[in-house]
């Protein structure tokens, strides 16, 4: 009430946020803090020029959301809160350190389908892409933005086809830049999978995107989630075009089929990885020429192994 009575006075908002922040460590205060997110974001929106207030507000929201996720509480932030956050992104689009924190917040928010839908509605994707282009070197920003992109693109009722298509070159650039950083590469593979699911690629994209995903698998063989998401992304590409299937067979760095075998043997206890590999192979055998090649490389042997390993799946 104290904050709502004096929206225009920056000092009141700052003191209010600081006082709310003092309750973060008190577990019994958590349900009450959950009801304050709108007040905090509105204070940030009204006083966007004050970087200190933005940082304190963002830090407090991160604390509240972290506790919510820990306790399995999904925070479905409404459209007004989403638009406040977008306003803040636009106002501080040059401030790398603050954006890093803000993008983490957006990633946590977008875990809720309702919040993701609200972020999509207010048109945040072009802003995320411009943040990515500007800070391609920043692994934290790249990780968070790709995770948000995945959440927004994977939505079934997606009307942003043109916007999503413009996300492909930026997402590919993130993966190319951070191939050796498993955490970022995993996030970028997920985003590429979502873009492939939405049919955001043109004929000229299939081969380079498939080659890039194979390279991500090669560079991060030990990361089960990356292998799973990379294979699912490849399966989506192959479903769309034989070019992608041929790119996997004839990859310049070596046979994609051999890579698939190696990845399976490395993660033979992971049902998620095995399922993604089977899905990819199932898409590949839809093309006669590809199937003949897979036969010659004794893929039946691998499939039999998988069947024995997961007899009840």
Describe this entry's structure for a reader:
The mean pLDDT is 91. The protein has helices at 10-21, 30-34, 37-46, 51-70, 79-91, 96-109, 113-121, 125-134, 139-153, 161-165, 167-177, 182-197, 206-219, 224-240, 242-249, 256-266, 271-284, 288-296, 299-309. With 313 residues, it is mainly alpha-helical.
Q: N- to C-terminal separation?
A: 55 Å
Secondary-structure element pattern, one letter each: HHHHHHHHHHHHHHHHHHH
The low-confidence runs, each spanning 5 or more residues with pLDDT under 50, are: none
Helix and strand composition category = mainly alpha
Shape: elongated
Extended strand count: 0
Query: How many individual helices?
Result: 19
Rg (C-alpha, Å): 22 Å
Nearest-integer average pLDDT: 91
The percentage of residues in β strands lies in under 5%
Largest sheet data: none
Relative helix content: over 70%
Catalytic activity: L-threonyl-[protein] + ATP = O-phospho-L-threonyl-[protein] + ADP + H(+); L-seryl-[protein] + ATP = O-phospho-L-seryl-[protein] + ADP + H(+)
GO molecular function: ATP binding; protein serine/threonine kinase activity
EC number: 2.7.11.1
Protein name: Serine/threonine kinase-like domain-containing protein STKLD1
